[in-house]
Structure formats: structure tokens, C-alpha cells
Design brief:
The complex is a heterodimer of chains A (about 270) and B (about 180). With about 270 residues, chain A is of the alpha+beta class. Chain A is about 30% helix and about 25% strand. In chain A, a hairpin with a 4-residue loop joins strand 12 and strand 13. Chain B contains five helices and five strands; from the N terminus they run H-H-H-E-E-E-E-H-E-H. The chains are: A alpha+beta (about 270), B alpha+beta (about 180). Chains A and B meet through strand 1, strand 2, strand 3, strand 8 and strand 9 of A and helix 1, helix 2, helix 4, strand 5 and helix 5 of B.
Amino acid sequence: MTQKSSTSTSASAPEDSRLRHVEHAMGTVFSFDVRGAGSGAGAARTRAALDAAVCWLHRVDEVFSTFLPDSQISRLARDELALSRCDPDVWEVLRLCEEAERLSDGWFSARYDMENDGGSAFDPTGLVKGWAVERAARMLVSAGAESVCLNGGGDIQLHGGPWRIGISDPHHPGGLAAIVQAHDELAVATSGPAERGCHILDPNTGEPPVTDLASVTVVCSGLTDADAWATAAYAMGGDRARVWLEQLPGAEGFAVTSDGGTWQTSGFGRHTA
Amino acid sequence: MKKKHPLRRILLSTAATVSGVVLLLALKQPADSSATAAAQAPAGTGAASATASQNAQDAQGGEGAQQDEPSSGPLPTKSAAGSSGTSGSSGTSTATKAVTGDSVDAQYGAVQVKLTVSGGKITKAETLQAPTTGPGGDAVPKLNQEVVTAQSANVDAVSGASYTSEAYKKSLQSAIDKAGL
């Protein structure tokens, strides 16, 4: 687990103060962008919150990584660690995974079948990153930061603003399919075939889903939900995803289909630039 | 000097992921002339002397010129651009410098990005090392182009990262960090 990081600060004018930080954790890149970081004691507090948020991301990795043999999740999977002895964060993530599974009729699932013994194991990877980012961003807001943009490998939690977030075009690497504008708490998560660490299966067949979507983006207030729901919607594909996202309270969706078309839920336009 | 936000935001967006040409065409955002020029000739002569914006504020002294590794990669460096020095002049424009990102291992080989920064703005992105085999072998030159054109997208971040650009992103981010942008 390498920790390469750097931070740049600009504080030429107090109200203008800004913190930027890039952190490598969980096998991906986290970019912090904090505006209105405050001055004097306020700036120091924001700075401390940034440090804490970075530590938090690495802590989450240690506890939840399925790649680290000594993580609590790995030991839990090998029955070497009782759930009752796990960190309370593990209980919370377990509950959130169950909620997402129920809400999505099983299209999101943190359980997967073991190849050998026929049992099932718990792999919350598909939810943990969004959950960790949501909480890390909140730390900065709690410390007094006015506007926060935290991007964890393409899944983004925002506070304050205004922020402009591009949705990448899966058919044209580097291009954007849409732009979302945020003026308050908002999360933007996109799922597609490039997503790693997810066990996306059709709950009816147990096979990888046959989807006609190249990517699907979910916008709602928190990234835990946005990330899990985007994963579920991607697995559902086509009309099922569209209907599901349409009736999901507080969430809007945007999708790019395999043939290059797009669709969006009825309220998505409120978020677009 | 109040205009620093847009610049920083744009640079962050290039760090978060890359975006670009299609946006220029599809969304008809007004394109910055220097970005466009560089995009049209991504591997050509540098646009180093290009427009120095009023955002030239922080060529933050020495941070910029760290060159971690010599460019030993398979691709020749075509930079006609960088006086690879630091230019501590803050406030006024045309400071040009080159920064080299970390070499990051990807599935088919290492990726290493070099940026040319002029007037606090990325005027050129090139790869010192890039995989020459495997799927997406031609993706990296495109990404170079996109880094530059992304500046006209005026977005803070991009949702929906692709796996293949991960190594590129990492190297790019480290270069941006070193540039103190």
C-alpha cells in the first residue's frame, strides 16, 4: 500500500483560500478540492480535517480491502474473525449493503458465491468506496469548509459550490456525455464495464448481466447511495434501470446506451448545465 | 488575480480524469485558443509560447522542476517547449516550465507523463513512456491531446473514470502536483 500524496495550498486572499490534495488509496486516486477553506484558525481546522480524511481513506482500505489478507473483511470471509469483533464500521457497511440489495431487488449485492465450497462471502467493495468518500467529504464540511469536491476514482461527492462535473462519454474516451451542476450537497456516480471490484450478477440467472448500457450515472445527495444505485442500474440495463431510477426517491439517472444513444430520468435536467 | 479559481478547477479536472475533444465539438464550449492549437498538433511543436493568461499567478518557485527520472522510455520526447527551469515570477505571465510525472506501472508497461506549463496553464502534455503493445496502445497519444483540450471544458471533475487511463492519470496527477498548479 503505497502512499504517495501531495497537497497544494493557496491562500492569497482569506476568503479565497483553497486546498487541493491528491491521494492514492484503495487502488485508485482521490482528489480533494476544497474552496473556502477559511483563514487563520479556520484554515488550520480545515487542514486538520483534510489530514484526518486522508487517514480515514487508508483506514477504510485496511479494514475493508479484499486484497489485504489481514483486513477484517478478509478475515471475516475466512471465518477467522467474528462479526461481533469487527469494527462497528463493518456493521454499518453490512447494513448499507443489505439495504441497497433490498432496494434494488438483488441487482446490487455484496454477497458472492464461493467457487469451491458453495458458500457465500461478503465483499462490500462495490459500496465501500462511495461510503468512504461521502464520509471523508463530510469531515471537511464539519470543519467549516464551504465547498468540497472529493473525487474517488470517478465517483464524486460535492458540498457547497458551484461545481461543474462532467460525465465521461464511454464511447469517446476523454469526451463528456453531459455536465452536471451542483450548488449544494450532491453526489455523482457512474457505473460501467470498466468498473472494478464489483461482483455484478443478474440475480435471476447468477450470470453477469446482459446489459445494453455503456454506462449509467446516478445523481443524489450521498455517494453511498449514488454508487450502489449506479451499480445496480447498470446491471439491470435498459428499461428496467430507467423505470427503477425514475421511481427511486431523491435520485436521478442518466445513461449512455451501447449503440451510442442516451436517456435520462424526468428530473435529471434540473442538474444539468 | 481573482480569476485563479477557474484555472485551478480546470487543472484539477484534468487530474481527476481527462476529457476533451468530443466536448469541444459536441457542446460547442468556447475553446481557448492555445488549448485548441495544442490539441490539433498534440505531438508537434510546443505551444509553449502560447497565451499567458492572467492566471499566471503561481508558478510556485522551485517545486516545478523536479525531474524524477530521466526520460528513458520508448517514446522520444518531442518537446520543443520547456525551458525546464523554475520561474519564480509570480503575477506576470509567460513563465514556461516542464514537469515530469511519476512513472506508473500499467498492465502493458509503464506510463510517464510530461507537462509543459506556460503562464500557469498546461500548454502541452506528452508521454515519456507509454505501453506500445496491448489493447489501447494508441490511447495514450489521445489522452495527451485531451489533457490540453480539457481546459476548455471548464469542469471541476469527471465522473466515470476508465480503467485503462488509471496509470496515465496517476502520472499526470503527480506532474500537476509538482507543477504546483
